[in-house]
Each structure stands twice: as C-alpha cells, then as structure tokens.
Design a protein that fits this description.
Layout lengths: L18 H5 L6 H32 L2 H28 L2 H24 L5 H30 L4 H29 L3 H19 L18 H11 L1 H16 L3 H12 L5 H24 L4 H20 L3 H29 L5 H12 L3 H14 L2 H20 L18
C-alpha cells in the first residue's frame, strides 16, 4: 500500500506566516538546528578531503583512469551493501548507529592524513582506506537521511531535507576554498586532518540532541524475507520506483563530478590545482541558491523531477561546451542549482511515499542509486576522459539526464505528492 496511512502527520511548529518563514520552517525545531549545524561543519571537512583526495591521486598516478577506479573503489561497498544497510537501519536506533559510523569515518581520515604528512602514503593505502570509507558510508548515508525524519517529524520532512541538502552545498562552496588554501600553504595532508577533526562536530551535535523531542520510528523486529520485502515494496510504488530508476541513471553518468571536473580543469583548461576548487565552488554556489528556492516552493513528485532532469541536461551540456574556465564555472552554477533541486525533489518524494517500517530500506536504495552507482560510472567517465576529452564525459552526463527525463515521462509514472506537508498527498 503506497504512502503512510498508518502514520498521521506529526504536529510541528505553527504554520509559517511568510515565504521566508516557510523557507526556513524546519530551523524552528531546536533539534534540527543542532543536527544541521554539526552536519554542516562536518561536511565542510568532507569537501576539503574530497578535493584533496582527487589531487593526491592525480599526483601519485597522473591518470584519469586510476582516479576513476579509486573513486569506484570508494563507493563500491555502497552499491553492494546498501540493501543490507537499509535493513540494519530499520532494525536499529538511528542516532546510536550514526555515532558509530561518524567516529569510524573520522578515524579513516585521520589515518590518511598522518600517512600523507609522514610521506609514507602509497596508492594501495589510498585504495584500502577508500574501501573502508565506503563500507561505513553504506550505513551512514541512508541513516543520516532517515534520521532527518525523526528529528523534525513528517510535517516538515520536505523542508528539512531541502535545508539539509542546501547545507551540503554551502559546504561545497566553503570546503574547496579551504582545500585550495591548505594545499597552497601547508600541503594536502592537512586537508585530511581537518576532515578528521570536523567529524567531532557532528558527533557533538548528536550527543546534544534532546532525545525526548525526537519522533522515533519503531524498530523492525527480525524476520525472514525482510530484504526481499523491501525491494518488492519499492518496486510496487511508482512514486518510489520511478525516482529511484531516474536517480540510478543520473548517478551513474552525471554525478561523477569528482572525476570529470578535476580532469576538465587540468586537461582541458590547463589550469592550476586550484582550478578544480573553482569549478566545485561554482557547483556549490548554484546549489545553495537552488536549495533556497526549492525550500520555498516545497513541491515533490515524479512530474517535477522529470522537468528538473531536463533542465539538468541543459546545464551539464553548457559545462561540456564552455570555451573558457570562467564560463565553465558560471555553467557549474546552473548545474549546482539543477542538481540540488533534482536531489531534494527525488529524496523527499520517496521518503514521503514510504511507510515508516520501510523507510530505512528505501533511503538505502536511494543512497545506492545516488552514490552506489559511482563504481559503475566513475571508471567509464575517467576512461572516456583519457581516451577522448573530459568534455565528452560531461556530454554523456547530459545525455543521461535526458534519459532520466524520458523515464519520468513514461506512462504510468505520473503519480506524485504535491507538497511535503499534506498527509497522503498525491495518493
């Protein structure tokens, strides 16, 4: 049965009286302010490390193909383990689970930072730590998404998901700038140390939450066939299966910016190492603006997701044909706006349409479609960039967005939720 007939809307703060209040409604919840603040600081560190890791791999190997393969190794566990991770999330206390995963991810960054600073880093170490990162992320990513619902309740989930995603992209603006400064002064190794320290912020925010004000989802008892039941449930609800398939296509060929953009900066525009930071910063700036607009509009559904996918295709195509680095950065702003709108619309749609007992498994499938597709796409994008040009790799991403739009327009997939706050919307 699609939707959540058994879960009435959770009473939240009084209805916002202005567009600005509507845009920031979830921030009126004290627990969400604590949670998103810790997440934002930690995500800045994550983007510092993301930029540094790409530059480190290129320094060690000078190969776009190897960059793609190692990026693949980093996300392969998410592809393989996400369905099981989703079941684990449904069975466990999400807050306690996040404390474990965040501490583990911080330790991995610390080890990598020490290895680089001591000059002992080898490419095999980067691969091993990338795989360990992926194993923990397979649980951490969907757990963080599912936990947002417990922090704010059903009535504010759309707004909370959008603001949380916007904070990711604020970090995408700030993180690469910090990375460029650290790489140019004290060196790449300190980027990993900064990320390791930043995990303390999100751990502190989880410990400081008022647990009495949370909206916990009852845990699911162990039983046979629960994994298959989750997959059948997702496949049986068009407003869940259609966004998941669209995200899988876009995630495989379009979201490989960790591979395509550093190669575009170096091979196409022959820029310094900081050129990659400018491109990523452009993505983040556009995503912040797009996220605020998405938070204000508060619309979800397959139809809206389809329209956004078409706009996304145009924006990525503009990056592919940009003749200069400044124009590519400007086009990246448009990509960022389309990206955040696509992500928040799809994520909110599948969460609102899922029953509580399946939410961990559904968010795990979303995480698998988003980042678990990277092991497939990143080697293709890296190899295509080496053999032809990063421009062709980006063009492939634009074509993938068009394919996602076709999937969304396919007959039978136009059931949609119209707002985040309407119980049973679009059913």
């Amino acid at each position: 049965m699609p939707g959540n007939a058994a879960e009435p809307p959770t009473p939240g703060p009084a209805a916002p009286r202005s567009h600005r209040q509507a845009m920031l409604a979830a921030l009126r919840v004290p627990n969400f302010r604590r949670y998103v603040s810790g997440q934002s600081l930690s995500l800045i560190g994550t983007w510092v490390e993301t930029v540094a890791q790409a530059l480190l791999i290129l320094r060690l190997t000078d190969s776009g193909t190897v960059l793609g393969l190692i990026t693949s190794a980093r996300y392969a566990p998410i592809l393989l383990l996400s369905p099981y991770a989703g079941l684990l999330i449904d069975r466990c206390d999400k807050r306690r689970l996040l404390l474990v995963t965040q501490a583990g991810l911080g330790l991995i960054s610390a080890v990598l930072g020490v290895s680089v600073l001591t000059g002992e880093i080898r490419i095999w170490q980067v691969v091993v730590l990338a795989v360990a990162f992926g194993v923990l992320s397979a649980v951490d990513n969907p757990a963080r998404q599912a936990f947002v619902h417990e922090v704010v309740g059903r009535s504010l989930i759309r707004n909370a998901v959008t603001l949380n995603s916007t904070s990711v992209n604020v970090a995408r603006v700030i993180g690469p700038t910090i990375a460029a400064a650290l790489v140019g002064t004290v060196g790449i190794g300190w980027c990993f140390v900064v990320n390791a320290v930043s995990f303390c912020c999100v751990i502190a925010s989880l410990l400081l939450l008022d647990t009495g004000s949370l909206h916990p989802t009852p845990t699911v008892s162990r039983a046979r066939g629960q994994l298959r039941a989750g997959l059948r449930y997702a496949a049986g609800v068009p407003a869940i299966s259609r966004p998941l398939l669209m995200m899988a296509v876009v995630g495989t060929f379009t979201f490989e910016f960790e591979v395509s953009l550093p190669l575009l900066a170096r091979e196409t525009f022959h820029g310094p190492e900081t050129a990659y930071s400018w491109l990523i910063g452009g993505l983040g700036a556009g995503a912040v603006a797009g996220g605020l607009i998405a938070a204000w509009s508060a619309r979800t559904g397959v139809r809206r997701l389809t329209n956004v996918a078409f706009c996304y295709a145009i924006a990525v195509g503009l990056v592919a044909v940009a003749p200069t680095l400044p124009l590519a950065v400007a086009a990246c702003v448009l990509v960022g706006a389309a990206s955040i709108t696509f992500l928040t619309t799809g994520n909110s749609t599948v969460q609102l349409e899922s029953d509580p007992e399946y939410r961990g498994r559904i968010t795990a499938l979303w995480s698998m479609a988003l980042v678990g597709s990277t092991p497939i796409g990143s080697p293709i994008i890296g190899a295509l960039s080496d053999v032809t040009s990063p421009r062709y790799a980006l063009a492939l991403g634009a074509v993938a967005c068009l394919a996602a739009a076709v999937i969304g327009r396919w007959p039978g997939g136009d059931r949609q939720a119209t707002t985040a706050t309407g119980a049973g919307a679009g059913r």
